[in-house]
Design a protein that fits this description.
Elements lengths: L3 E5 L4 H14 L2 E8 L7 H10 L4 E6 L1 H15 L15 H15 L1 E5 L8 H12 L4 E3 L1 H4 L4 H10 L13 E5 L2 E5 L29 E8 L2 E5 L2 E2 L2 H14 L4 E7 L5 E7 L1 H17 L2 H19 L6 H13 L5 E8 L2 E8 L7 H4 L10 H10 L1 H11 L2
Parallel strand pairs: 1-2, 1-4, 2-3, 4-5
Antiparallel strand pairs: 6-7, 7-12, 8-9, 8-13, 9-10, 11-12, 13-14
Helix pairs in contact: 1-7, 3-9, 4-5, 8-9, 10-11
Keywords: Amino-acid biosynthesis, Arginine biosynthesis, ATP-binding, Cytoplasm, Ligase, Nucleotide-binding
Main location: cytoplasm
GO molecular function: argininosuccinate synthase activity; ATP binding
């Protein structure tokens, strides 16, 4: 049997051309693997057939929507995963799942190499190849777009010359990556930092002014850090994300326009839409505010940053990430309860919290009748808390 290359297949121009190009350049057969992560768009059966039409010897479609939600999105919620404390890791958490299924396909179909369609300028090349190195270091990696300096024009020329059956006439001004956790948009006129996003940039969210007169109040229930119900109705993690995408998107919630520090060392302007992700992370953080002890909450905030950096940098399968997961999971044992929010005009406002594991004590917090806080403790506490600063101040002032 010929050598086989297992290709991460999106159904677009670059990966469709890659099927034929790999065959011609290496003599290997290509197994195309497409992953359904809830990205919408084309029917996955159409994508599967396109790979075969382009010359793949096998074309596999994996429905990984629930797996993605439960094993990749849920840990991101528990970690409050936000790169640069803004971006909910839309693309970063999908790549390790794709890597996992490509490695599985390589084992099942006799693959000796894996291939992706990433450029040399982005983060995804790192996420794919570091992931392959962690799960299957014996596999070779082929990256035709990066290693052979493909441009869109070169890909179109190759497709036309080799009669590859893919429509290459439609050109979007943007580069778009999307899944159920969110949508990432870059390039085109967005590369000028002064240009504001136009209406056609967005797809998951409405203009925040459209439903301004009809705010949406929603209650999310968590069990040990994982969403399990919306407005009292039990849901899977996937169902929670999908419903909040719909409801949050209708309110223009989850839009983000940021300049991001890429792993390769450049800054990149990115526009994101992630209504469900931002609602769930906001709610989860609000519940942690009620249920985590102060010192633990402070420390976890730093761990969340480290977790987000590691995931962004392609280290999902690393010892560091596994250790951070263990810490985060330990913090979630009491993060159960309900968070009520109002989605309105592009904003998420928490206005209600309740939990059987709450550390909020009404009698300690109240200033009214029933106050059980012994204020006689305060004077000595204040004096001791400020003692070291007071001693230093006396020295510095020569007192």
């Amino acid at each position: 049997m010929s050598d086989r290359v297992v290709l991460a297949y999106s159904g677009g121009l670059d990966t469709s051309v890659a099927i034929s190009w790999i065959g011609k350049e290496t003599g290997a057969e290509v197994v195309a693997v497409a992953i359904d992560l809830g990205q919408g768009g084309e029917d996955m059966d159409v994508v599967r057939q396109r790979a075969l039409d382009c010359g793949a010897v096998e074309s596999i479609v994996v429905d990984a929507r629930d797996e993605f939600a439960e094993e990749y999105c849920a840990p991101t919620i528990k970690a409050n995963g936000l790169y640069m404390r803004q971006y909910p890791l839309v693309s970063a958490i999908s790549r390790p799942l794709i890597v996992k299924h490509l490695v599985t396909a390589a084992k099942m179909h006799g693959g000796t190499s894996v291939a992706h369609g990433c450029t040399g300028k982005g983060n995804d090349q790192v996420r794919f190849e570091v992931g392959f190195g962690a799960l299957a270091p014996d596999l070779d990696v082929i990256a035709p777009v990066r290693d052979y300096a493909w441009t869109r024009e070169k890909a179109i020329e190759f497709a036309e010359k080799n009669e590859i059956p893919i429509n290459v006439t439609k050109k979007s001004p943007f580069s778009i990556d999307q899944n159920v956790w969110g949508r990432a948009v870059e390039t085109g006129f967005l590369e000028d930092l002064w240009n504001a996003p136009t209406k056609d940039v967005y797809d998951y969210t409405e203009d925040p002014t459209i439903n301004f007169a009809a705010p949406d109040e929603v209650t999310v229930t968590f069990s040990e850090g994982v969403p399990v119900a919306i407005d009292g109705r039990k849901v899977t993690v996937l169902e929670a994300i999908e419903e909040l995408n719909r409801r949050g998107g209708a309110q223009g919630v989850g839009r983000l326009d940021m300049v991001e520090d890429r792993l390769v060392g450049i800054k990149s302007r990115e526009v994101y839409e992630a209504p469900g992700a931002m609602i769930l992370i906001t709610a989860h953080k609000a519940l942690e505010d009620v249920t985590l002890e102060r010192e633990l909450a402070r420390y976890k905030s730093g761990v969340s940053d480290e977790w987000s950096n590691a995931v962004y940098d392609g280290l999902w399968f690393s010892p560091l990430k596994y250790a951070l997961d263990a810490f985060i999971d330990n913090t979630q044992q009491h993060v159960s309860g309900d968070i009520r929010m109002v989605l309105h005009g592009g904003s998420i406002t928490v206005n209600g919290r309740r939990s059987d594991s709450s550390l909020y004590d009404f009698n300690l917090a109240t200033y009214d009748e029933g106050d059980s806080f012994d204020q006689s403790y305060a004077k000595g506490f204040v004096n001791l808390h400020g003692l070291s600063s007071k001693i230093a101040a006396k020295r510095d002032l020569g007192l």
